[in-house]
From TrEMBL:
The keyword Ribonucleoprotein does not apply. It comes from Hydrogenophaga taeniospiralis CCUG 15921. Keywords: Membrane, Transmembrane, Transmembrane helix. The chain crosses the membrane at residues 12-33, 45-65, 77-97, 109-128. This is YiaAB two helix domain-containing protein. The keyword Mitochondrion does not apply. Residues 15-67, 78-130 form the YiaAB two helix domain. One of its GO terms (cellular component) is plasma membrane. GO terms for biological process: DNA damage response.
Amino acid sequence: MPAPAYAAQRPTGAFIAASWAALMVGAVVYLMGLWNAQMQLNEKGYYFTLLMYGLFSAVSLQKSVRDRIEGIPVTGIYYGLCWVSLGLSVALLTVGLWNATLAASEKGFYAMAFLLSLFGAVAVQKNIRDVAQFRSAHPEIDGAAAE
């Protein structure tokens, strides 16, 4: 039995703004912390790569989950890899921070900025997809016919 069609509603402007703010604040603050950190360049590269990997895996997982809800085929291996990638990025950040010679407040700063970035990326991607789906279903309401 196919999954029921997903009927997206247009997200509110406030939720769209809050999602972008969460992504931007989390990522910019995390990167500012790295820029100003007193650590070797290879350590900064490690934490930067973890942020990029985490953002990509979170968005990819969100897309896979949404595709499955909408009845779009997603292979089990890809879906599983998305979950493993997200878990791995969080685990690698945890291990890195656990073993880092940083103050506890700095470790918490990086962890919270990282998680805020992941949440923001998922919410932004969801909003973009919801708005696109809403526009295609309701061009007369949202002005998509003019585009």
